[in-house]
Every structure is written in C-alpha cells, then in structure tokens.
Write a structure and sequence with these properties.
Number of domains of chain A: 2
Bound molecules: adenosine-5'-triphosphate, magnesium ion
Number of strands of chain B: 2
CATH topology of the largest domain in chain A: Rossmann fold
Number of helices of chain A: 8
Order of helices and strands of chain A: EEEHEEEHHHEHEHEEHHEEEEEEEEEE
CATH superfamily of one domain in chain B: MetI-like
Strand content of chain A: 25-35%
Shape of chain B: globular
CATH architecture of one domain in chain B: Orthogonal Bundle
CATH superfamily of the largest domain in chain A: P-loop containing nucleotide triphosphate hydrolases
Strand content of chain B: under 5%
Distance between the termini of chain A: 36 Å
Number of helices of chain B: 16
Largest sheet of chain A: 6 strands, mixed
CATH architecture of the largest domain in chain A: 3-Layer(aba) Sandwich
Oligomer: heterodimer
CATH topology of one domain in chain B: MetI-like fold
CATH class of the largest domain in chain A: Alpha Beta
Distance between the termini of chain B: 33 Å
Helix content of chain A: 10-25%
C-alpha cells in the first residue's frame, strides 16, 4: 500500500526539541516498530507522520509524495490512539462507520463495509452497544476496526496494547500481528517494550532523547547494536559492558583485558582511551580453563537456563548458562567469550567501533 | 460480617443528611408556596391576619394580572350581563374589563431578552472556551484574567456610564440593548465554566475525527459539542437565571417596549390599590420558565455541577 520516508524530520515545542533530525524508511507492508524509553519522542514522530503535528523542518514522503505540511484528512493514514479515543457518544456501529461517513459513502456500502470489518475482528455481536461498557479487548478491537474500515494507506498505532493487562496483551499482540499479515498494510507501531518490538516487528527504530539511535531488523539491532544505549535497551538481561582502558588497532582481532588477550571480530577502525567491551550474557561461557576469571555473586534459575552474576576485574557481568551448570556463590570461575559476537564501544561517544561484525550497520566514523 | 463500610455512609448519617436536605428544602420552599397560594386568594384573604392556610381559591389575581378594568355605571352593568367567567369575577366589584394588561407583553420581553442573551452568551462562550482550551493563544492567561475581571465589581457600579452610553447609541429600552448587556455580564462566567468543561474532554477525540477525515470545525461540532452538552446546559441555566431575574438594569434602562417582567410586576401594586393576589400571580408565572428550563435540563445539571469531574 505505501512506503513512508522520514527525512531529517525535526520537531520543536517552543525551546524544547522533541525530535532531532531523524531519518528512516518504512517499506511497503512492513510492521515497523518505533521503540524507545518514555519521553524520547516516539509519539511525536508518529503524530507527525499522521499529520496531528507538523514538523518544524524536514520532509515526510508517503508513496513518493511530500505530505509533511498536509492536514490529516488529506493523508489517508489511520491512527489507533493509546487510550483508543472511541467516540463516547456513539455506539460501536457508529464509531466504525464514522470514517466512511466523512467520505460521503452510501449508506448501504457503509453497512456492508462495517459488517465486513466486524466479522474480521469478531465483534458482530456488539455493534449496537455503546462503547462505554465495553471490555478492554473489545475497545481495542473497535479502535482497530475504526482504523481498518476505510482501507487507509498506512496505520499508526501508539502503544495500542498499553491499556490492556499483561495476559491479554500477549493475546492481542498475536491477533494484531495476524491481522497485519492478512492485510499486508504498512503499520507503524509505537512501544516502549523491547520484547514486544522484537517479537512483532519486521523492522525497529530505536529512539532515545529525541534521536534515532539505530534502525534495522530485530536481529541486526540485537546482534549488532550501533550504540551502547541500544545494546543496553534491547535484551533481557541486557548486554554486559566491561569498561577498560587501552587501544585497538585497525585490523586487530584481539583486545587486551587485564593482561589477557581476548578475541573480538576483526576491527575496521582503530581507537584508544576509554573503551567498553560489550558481550551478551548468552555469549559468555563458564570454563575452568579460562584465564580471565570472575567470582560468582548470585545465580538466578530460569528453568532451562540460569543467569549467573559474576564479579570480574572489569566490573559486574551476567552470564546465561545451562540450568544444569554448577556454580556456587563465592566460587572463582574462568570465563570465555564468543569472540565473533563481541562489540567494542567508545565510552565517551557511546558508539560501537566498526568491525567485521557490524559492517554496513554502523557507518559513522 | 460487620455492617461497617468505609465507602458507604452509615444509615444514621444518611438519615441525618436526608433530614438536613428536607429541612433546607422546606425553608426555601415556604416563601414560594406562600406566593403561589396567595395568587389564588381573594384580596381580603391575602391580607387577613392570622394568615389563612385554608381558603376559597379564586382566579381573581390572575384575571387582574392580565387585564385592565374600569368602574361602570349601574345602568351599563345591568344592560351588559357578563359573558365569560372572568368578566363575572370582575363584576363582583362593579367593574368591567377594559382590555388586556401589559403583563403578557412584558413577559414576552423577558423571554426574548432572557433566552436571547443566554443563547448568545453560551454560543460565544463555547467558541471562546474552545479556542482558549485548544489553541496556543498569545497572552491566553492574561486574556482569561481580563475576561474574569469584568466580574470583579458589581455590574450595577457602571450603571451610570452604561445608561449614558445606551442613550447615545439609541440602545435604551430596546431588546437588542438588553440582550447585549446581559450577554456582556454573563460571558465571563460562560467562558470560564465552559473552558473547564472543554479542558476535561481529551483532545484525542477530535484528533480521531481529524484522522477519520473531518475538518477541524466538523470535529468541534460533531465530537466536542455532544460531549460538552453537560457543561453547556449548566452554563445556560446559570446565564438564564441571571438574565431572567435581573432587576436593577431593567429598571434603569427599560420603561416601555423592552421592559422585562421584574420591573413590571411591582407596578401592578399601584394599579387599583394593593392587589397582592395579582402580584403573587405575576410572580408565579414569572417563576415558571426558569423552573421548566431547569427541570428539562436537570439531568445535565446534576452531572454538570461537579464541573466535569465525573465524566467517563
Ligand atoms: N504539545 C507539546 N508541547 C510541549 N512538549 C511536548 C508536546 N508534546 C510532547 N512534548 C514533549 O516532547 C517529548 C517527547 O514526547 P513524546 O510524547 O513524543 O514521547 P514518547 O516517546 O511518546 O513518550 P511516552 O512513552 O511517555 O509516550 C516529551 O518530553 C514531551 O513532554
Ligand atoms: Mg507516547
């Protein structure tokens, strides 16, 4: 249906900058996640795409057409609000038909279309009800119905599951993803839940402090974080950061941690000074032979795996180990790292150093 | 199980609160009942002491209110027997009905001016309140304060300038003049009340309407207005009560064409002695429109008095 290109978009509210020059592309039919902590500018970005907020500068292209200054009614983009915003003075049927009535659609066609959508969402039996008494799930479905009823070019969803309780969220998330796969409509979905973003998204934009930190597929973002913020924000437990003082040369395949030479992906960029060795818990192995050692501080049993917290010469570290592995608190254990999955960061800028691993993802110098 | 509940008041406190309300209602309703009863008394019963609670009801007061009467010679009376029930009532005093009084005209003036200014206040107030609530207006707070400041002294304090101004502009004793005056007094109340109501309506509803393909104005009157109905109704009642009951300006600025009921009713006293039943009848009829209006909108009013706190 539609490709959306965001180009150098910026939004200021008075002196406050809610979104700094941001650029990314949402391909036709993608389920696209806007992920970031509270207040980072996700909603503002979404509202600019929908036309509820006009960017201070920059361009937004919808199917090649520049729309950044157009009113929402001329964009043909649907929006699902966080609290649903169903019209409280209308029943479910009226809510669903409202976007069609504005187009001047004939009454008969409206009825057919609304019933069609009600069937898709399984809400035929509540069409006559006022929206006030609906359950959270039904409200959610009506809000979705109001969005899909007029076949818009794209859907914007602002934390659409945020108002539901945890159990129901998962169910609705599946329903939503299934609905998307069936309709294939471009969808931009805002969330601050990294798990939700990883599970549902085709692509993810990670935002922090009004800035786009990284943009890519869930795998790219997880395996090849471009910044320490992304590495920390994605994954649970998040990536381990072991700060060290030293230098790496271009082409190097090891770094020196406490006198131990540790394998890393071949570096494409030299750096020195305050650096950070980043490794995910599942890429840490415990072995008696490892020369780099840590003391077990705590273990957390998770069923098939366990999380072992260790104290290393470079600070605390979490390792994900098979549940059967024996680790007693106070014990000193040797550690191994899966070299090709390690990311080095420059501590001052917080950015990843370019390496064989993240080549093409991390482009900045 | 204990009957004690944190959220439910105890039976005793319910009874206590109930009796207080009833007592208050009685105190406020006794004068009203007195006026309504007096309207159906004969002049003699009306001033008898001790006051009569049980009496022969008569429509004399109402007939006198709506008519002017003249005394006639016996020959005339004998030659023209009364044809209607109201003429018969008048004949007791050897009088005949000379024509309608000015009361219906004055009452109509009250309706035109009261409802006209109420409509105008609420209409302008809603638009202004919406603008203040939704748009970035330079100096919005100062403007709101300025609007409120028009109520910081009693309106009658500026009676003389207004009197002179109205005379110059030809607005004295006109419907338009009175409507404008009452609107000017009511508008600050309307803006402030309505703003708090509209503030309470989440902007998402309008944004949803914008997304659904409606214009800003359509979103306003199709989505915001229905939800502000409670606020609009209660604001309208407050405005109407003021405009309807206003006396001082009406005395000062109207005398004929645009005279409202409040300054007219006391003039009944002067016509043919102290006609208390006619005055009481006038007061009773005068009370009705506000009562009907309030009862008609009471569903909204009850929710509205809490100023939007209990909306879903
Ligand atoms: N209309 C506005 N006027 C002034 N500041 C605003 C406005 N809208 C948003 N902001 C500010 O811009 C920043 C980003 O807001 P935004 O709503 O986009 O964040 P978000 O990422 O959606 O956060 P959340 O997860 O809490 O919804 C916030 O600090 C917010 O206070
Ligand atoms: Mg938000």
């Amino acid at each position: 249906m539609a490709q959306i290109i965001i180009k150098n978009v910026r939004k200021e509210f008075g002196d406050f900058t809610a979104v700094k020059e941001s650029s990314f592309t949402i391909e036709d039919g993608e389920f696209f996640m806007l992920l970031g902590p509270s207040g980072c500018g996700k909603t503002t970005t979404l509202r600019m795409i929908a036309g509820l907020e006009l960017p201070t500068s920059g361009e937004i292209y919808l199917d090649g057409e520049e729309i950044s200054q157009k009113p929402p009614s001329q964009r043909d983009i649907a929006f699902v609000f966080q609290m649903f915003a169903l019209y409280p003075h209308m029943n479910v049927y009226k809510n669903l038909s409202y976007p069609l009535v504005s187009q001047g659609m004939a009454r008969r066609d409206v009825k057919a279309k609304v019933e069609d959508v009600a069937n898709i969402l399984g809400i035929q039996n509540i069409l006559k009800k006022p929206v006030g008494g609906l359950s959270g799930g039904d409200r959610q479905r009506v809000a979705l119905g109001r969005a899909i009823v007029r076949d818009p070019k794209a859907f914007m969803m602002d934390e659409p599951l945020g108002a539901l309780d945890a159990e129901f969220r998962e169910h609705m998330a599946e329903e939503l993803r299934a609905l998307h796969d069936r309709m294939g409509a471009t969808t931009v979905y805002v969330t601050h839940d990294q798990l939700e973003a990883m599970q549902m998204g085709d692509k993810i934009v990670v935002m922090n402090n009004a800035v786009v930190e990284q943009f890519g597929t869930p795998q790219e973002i997880y395996d090849k974080p471009a910044t320490m913020f992304v590495a920390d924000f994605i994954g649970s437990p998040s990536m381990n950061f072991l700060p060290f003082h030293g230098s790496v040369a271009e082409g190097a395949q090891t770094v020196d941690l406490q006198g131990q030479s540790i394998a890393v992906p071949r570096q494409m960029q030299g750096a020195s000074g305050k650096l950070v060795f980043g490794v995910r818990p599942e890429h840490v192995t415990l072995s008696d032979t490892g020369a780099y050692r840590g003391e077990v501080l705590a273990t957390e049993y998770l069923g098939t795996t366990q999380i072992i917290t260790l104290d290393t010469p470079n600070g605390a570290l979490k390792a994900r180990a098979p549940a059967g592995q024996v680790a007693t608190v106070g014990e000193k254990i040797g550690l191994g790292f899966k070299g090709e999955a390690v990311t080095l960061f420059d501590e001052n800028s917080g950015r990843a150093l370019r390496s064989e691993l993240n080549e093409g993802i991390v482009t900045h110098g | 199980m204990s009957s004690f509940s944190v959220t439910e008041p105890s039976t005793r406190s319910k009874w206590f609160a109930g009796s207080l309300v009833i007592l208050y209602a009685l105190i406020t309703m006794v004068p009203l009942a007195w006026i309504m009863l007096t309207g159906f008394k004969s002049p003699a019963d009306a001033i008898s002491y001790p006051p009569k609670v049980i009496f022969d009801p008569t429509l004399e007061g109402y007939v006198n209110l709506f008519t002017t009467r003249t005394r006639q010679t016996d020959e005339f009376l004998a030659a023209n027997p009364p044809e209607t029930w109201y003429e018969e009532i008048v004949r007791q005093y050897d009088m005949v009905i000379a024509g309608p009084s000015k009361f219906s005209e004055r009452f109509l003036n009250s309706v035109i001016i009261g409802f006209g200014s109420t409509f105008l206040s609420v209409f302008l107030g809603t638009l202004a309140a919406y603008a203040f609530s939704r748009f970035k207006i330079p100096l919005a707070d100062d403007l709101l304060f300025f609007i409120l400041s028009t109520r910081m002294m009693p309106p009658i304090a500026v009676a003389i300038p207004i009197f002179l101004m109205y005379r110059q502009l030809g607005l004295s004793d006109t419907h338009l003049g009175m409507i404008l005056l009452y609107t000017a007094v009511n508008i600050s109340l309307a803006v402030w009340l309505l703003k708090s109501f509209i503030d309470g309506i989440p902007t998402e509803y309008e944004e949803a309407a914008l997304i659904d393909g409606y214009t800003r104005f359509q979103a306003f009157y199709k989505v915001v207005l229905p939800q502000a109905a409670t606020g609009i109704a209660s604001t309208a009642i407050f405005c109407l009560i003021f405009a309807w009951n206003e006396y001082a300006f009406a005395v000062l600025l109207t005398s004929g064409t645009a005279q409202t009921a409040p300054p007219f009713i006391p003039t009944i006293i002067g016509v043919g002695g102290l006609d208390w039943p006619a005055v009481a009848a006038g007061a009773t009829i005068f009370l009705l429109p506000v009562m009907i209006f309030t009862v008609a909108l009471r569903k909204h009013l009850l929710r509205g008095i809490t100023f939007g706190a209990v909306r879903k």
